[in-house]
Write a structure and sequence with these properties.
The protein is mostly helical and 194 residues long. The chain has 8 helices and no strands. Helix 1 (4-16) packs across helix 7 (138-172) and helix 2 packs antiparallel against helix 3. The protein is globular. The termini are close together. The model is unreliable at 94-101 (pLDDT under 50).
């Protein structure tokens, strides 16, 4: 039985924390307004979904041909989550959205996912660590991909709508936020072995 609280903590922390998707969505909404920036967010959703489906297929394939790989994939997920916790804890500041330029189109949002290391690592870690070991049905695996993509879409839309508020909040409380998020990520990593 999967640890639902660790899974949800990992999902929410990684999708709602600053990253290329969230920062660009915040920037686009600041430049063009929420309504005009939504096409980029929809592109992000579909790109995220494609990456998740590919990660699910790859992880399922690896589990079927090498059942013992679960131990290694769990350990890699554990190390990645700890690395992410360390990076969040050591983070001095959040990206300056003025430094990021992008096209505000569906295609730009879609293609960004294929070069976004946070999304690729998130997908592989979430799927191989929290989903594949517990579920086998292709329908269930696809539904998890849609669910995770929807959570990511909610995150980008939140950053679009509340970007300026989040930015001030993060900048004003970065040490407390970094420590809190880091500790939650450490909990996620440790719970993989509990």
């Amino acid at each position: 039985m999967p640890n639902v609280s660790a899974f949800m903590a990992y999902i929410l922390l990684t999708t709602f924390t600053p990253g290329p998707n969230n920062i660009i969505c915040m920037t686009n909404a600041g430049k063009y307004g929420f309504v005009k920036s939504i096409t980029f967010n929809i592109g992000v959703f579909f790109g995220f979904l494609i990456i998740l489906l590919a990660s699910t297929a790859l992880s399922t394939f690896l589990y079927e041909i090498m059942p013992k790989i679960k131990t290694y994939m769990t350990f890699i997920g554990f190390l990645y989550i700890l690395r992410l916790a360390w990076k969040v804890f050591k983070s001095d500041r959040y990206s300056n959205s003025a430094e990021i330029t992008s096209d505000n189109s569906f295609l730009s949002g879609l293609l960004l996912q294929f070069i976004n290391p946070k999304v690729i690592l998130f997908s592989m870690t979430a799927v191989s660590t929290f989903i594949i070991p517990y579920y086998e049905s292709a329908t269930t695996l696809c539904l998890f991909s849609v669910f995770l993509s929807f959570v990511g879409f909610c995150a980008t839309c939140s950053w679009s709508v509340f970007g300026a508020v989040f930015k001030r909040f993060f900048e004003g409380n970065k040490r407390i936020i970094n420590l809190s998020m880091s500790l939650l990520l450490v909990y996620c990593a440790v719970s993989l072995y509990l």
